[in-house]
Amino acid sequence: MKAIQNTIVEEMNALDDWMDKYDYIIAQGRDLRCADEAIRSDQYALAGCQSQVWIRAECRDGAMRYMADSDAQITRGLIALLLRIVNGQSPKRVAEADFFFIERTGLDRHLSPARGDGLAAIISELKRYARQKGA
Fold it and tell me: Is 49 a catalytic residue?
């Protein structure tokens, strides 16, 4: 997980200005493939986000697998970054994860308060699923 986050930090910090960084985040979201359109239902909806967010998780062979989507480009990109980090990890590792890339890239200072709260809610949900599936 650390190596993936370090890669994200390097990729983002190689970009000089925040418009380029936002473009990078949006591009990550474009690559997010949600195999199951049924995820966009109330059953998987996440409260606490400015945008609509849907998250579904399963644990297969000891590894977490998340599917997620959002109706907002930036949020979708942030989700894609998070899923790069957590997919394929053990429930324990996800539940205990420190998402240090947020601070090291400056995202914590450049997201609006509402987006920051939404990002925290998404991380909390990823960890909740990991604790639930790992039990």
Answer: yes
